[in-house]
Known about the structure:
2 domains, alpha+beta, four-stranded antiparallel beta sheet, globular, 4 strands
Amino acid sequence: MKGIIFTEFIDMVEEHFGYEMVDYLIESSELPSGGSYTSVGTYNYSEIMQLVRQLHLKTEIPLDDLLRTFGIHLHKTFTTGYHHFFEAYDSSREFLESIDNHIHVEVRKLYPDAELPRFVTSRPNEDTLEMLYTSERKMGQLALGLIEKSVEFYNEKAEVTMENLSNDGTQVRFVIKYIQ
């Protein structure tokens, strides 16, 4: 997993809970990296999940809520650092439909070893976008936060629902119903 995910998670924890919590998470987890991350490094996915679990245990905030909040936090990072991706589209529908065929293609050019989730989109009707998420990382809640913030970024209103299609969380369907 790319280091930007780790560095942004640490930033989010520090912003919401303080540096002492960051220190606690790193000290209480068994991290092969030692908890020292760079945004361009590559780290084992299990490390981020250890950090999220430790935060859950310490704060008693549900894991799903932590991952969704992290997705919301990441969106801000993406719109700041990769604003050209967002500016290329006029709506969240167009943007969300472009993730696999444009954005992830560009990410792979920069980071050929990146293990990215897959998104297959369809429009069952004029006001609805469906996204099928597939990832061994099982971070559907993180994707939910990113999707919700994408709708907000384009000043749109929508109801976003999430349905697990597999028991292990590797396949999820998001339905985004736009409100006129």
